[in-house]
Amino acid sequence: MSNTNRLTDTVGFMLCIALLGAMAGCTTYVEQPRPREVYIPPPPPPPVAYVQPPPAYAPPPAVQAEVSSGSVGVVIRSENDFYEPLTPYGRWEVVGSYGRCWIPARVEANWRPYCNGYWQRTDAGWYWASDEPWAWATYHYGRWDFTAQFGWYWVPRTQWAPAWVSWHEGGGYVGWAPLHPAARISASGSVEVNVALIAPRAFVFVEQRQFLQPVRPTTVVVNNTTIINKTVNITNTKIVNNTVINEGPATTVIEKASGRKVQAVPVRELRHKQEAEVVARQRIAPPPREEKVQTPVRSAPAPRETKVQPESQQRAKESETKAQEQLQRSAKDAERATQLESQQRAKEAAAKAQEESQRNASGLEKKAQQESERRAKDAAVKTAEESQRNARGLEKKAQQESEQRAKDSAVKAREASQRNATGLEKKAARVSEQPAKQKPAPSEKGATQLIKKGRKTEGKEKPLPPENPTEPPKSSP
Description:
about 15% strand; alpha+beta; 8 helices; elongated; 19 strands; single chain
């Protein structure tokens, strides 16, 4: 049965071939030229790409290990060394002639420097310790200042100190304020501070008995002119053997007020403890193992060379981008908050200035009124005294004139009386020369009587002069 089937298949196959041959004989076939084959060799495989691992640890310039001393610390060689470590916590702005200055971000509206921490006594004076992540730089280097536009901003400097502050003490209080950027170190080693440049709003005060306690914005007294007027400047910052000494309130005064024993510690230990944390924060994660990346071989033309990025680097870039975006948002929020705070402070300052000007105007008006009243009173007193002197002068002059007139009248009266007496005596002598028997004429008799009467009255009080002394007295007939 199988042989029969095979035969049938063979016959059928032969018939199909014959039929196809007959059909091909009846068809004209034009042969097309075959395309020329070009041999393209496959591209060589790309070289093996290696990702160079990052160094074990390359800290920024500001954070380096002090290998010689065997301890970890921060070395600042220039003001640029602060840029990278402080950028995550704030922004840099060019402020006036100070150049690039740092402004903290994400802080409270009432934030101020040297207000979150505590004071520790050291062999270099009072050291300001704080948990703020920028404390190692901004409280031990540089100066602080305030403007309405930026709020509190930090001016970088390269000289380290336990703290850069100005001290006030008195009335049971201790106060401090950040040194102004204008403070300079003299050739003798002392720090020259112009306290007039430090505004009263920059000072914070605590009671002497609370000086050793932690300092917070809620525990200090801010911008109190009454307390400021009760205190005196005790700033005494100097450099001894290249070390800045920050002397403030005396240790004995603090011990007596607080009832606690003040134990001084080496400033080097506090500094290295704080800066070791900075170094630890700046350390980067260890690099991944070296990976060998090879691009697969393709028959098609090889694409352009692409850079190979490990997943860790991509993630790091994404994290950095997110951090930058977050930092920008935070900076904008901080800038907006600072702007609102500056506007509020400007309004408060304007209101205070207006109140102060009104008080000054009222005081000046009152003072001017008092001065006018005093001058009027003095003028009245002077006028009364002048009137009294004039009245006394006139009275004295009138009295002198009256006495002079009386004397002149008395003299004239005596002269007239003497003339009359002389005339009468002569007349009486002529009458006596007449004959004795001849009786005197009535006129002579009267003259004789007048002479006798005049002689009797001599030596007695002289009569008052006549009203008109120029006219001689009339003789009796």
